[in-house]
Amino acid sequence: MRRLFPLPAPPVPSGDFPHTADTPRDGNSASVASALAAEPGAIAGTATGTDAGALSGAPDSGTAGPADSTTADSADSRTAGPADFRTAAGAGSAPAGAADFADRRWGLDELADAYAYPRLDAGAGWLRANMVSSLDGAAHHEGRSQPLSSDADMRIFGVLRGLADAVVVGAETVRKEGYRPARAREAFAARRAAAGQPPAPVIAVVTASLDLDFAQPLFTEPLVPTVVVTGAGADEDRVRTARKAGAEVVFAGEGAAVDPSRVVGALAGRGLTRLLTEGGPRLLGQFAGSGALDELCLSLAPLVVAGDASRIMNAPVTTVPETFELASVLEEAGFLFTRYRRS
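The line above is the sequence of Bacterial bifunctional deaminase-reductase C-terminal domain-containing protein; the predicted structure tokens follow.
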């Protein structure tokens, strides 16, 4: 894989011009070389396993999906699968050098550095989405995004999970797909400990109805308590049931429905500031429409699907389209891995 954007700084001509070739550029460090030496391997996983990607909160079917924050959604979210990634880049990482553009294998730490969350003010949160799309805009093929994915896409999928404090998912996903707790992975242990994070990310379930099976492993076997995000007007009996099952209930909205614009703040108030949503198009559309989405990691597959598959976002049109700016682009085997940040 190779980096396409951002472009490297142009070299300084030799001769009468100052020689700066031996001077590291601002922000560069030895982390790239050390990462390649320390973590050259890939993360193993399968499209149908419970330990797919770097960290698995995905269900046995390998699919993740939408939320019922206001209405039910279709199961069009990200899927987990095999991984073998060779290069990466991203806004916020060290400036691109010539080596970043070569087709080479990159280490796990290097990827994690490239996709690191930005520094945040106290009490602030950052919501990142990870989705995949075909060339003609389909978010899935025959109900699943896995056919649109690739090894490199799944490598990024795992790294993004490994960096997150919480993976935000919808209740419909949990009900349909048997969502399981995220697992700790040794490859991320030191990084997470240094960042003050638990061994695995929290799974945060967005639900208006709290219509969940609290006897499922998501609530009975998590390394860290599962969070249920609902409205302050949610059914009190269901709230008590959730708490009795060990879930932490977080309110985001005054009524029974969840207010998507308040989810990030509600989770950040619990110390969960680095957020990742893989959610269905409806939930993602609600986040984007409310101005809550900060970053979109969009994988573009070199495939044409046709049919009536939904787009990566499915929600009422925004009053004024919001602008995102390109942060980085990676390429492998015709797949483009883009990062856009809200302007």
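Note on the example: The first strand starts at residue 2 and ends at 5. Residues 4 and 294 are 22 Å apart (CA to CA).
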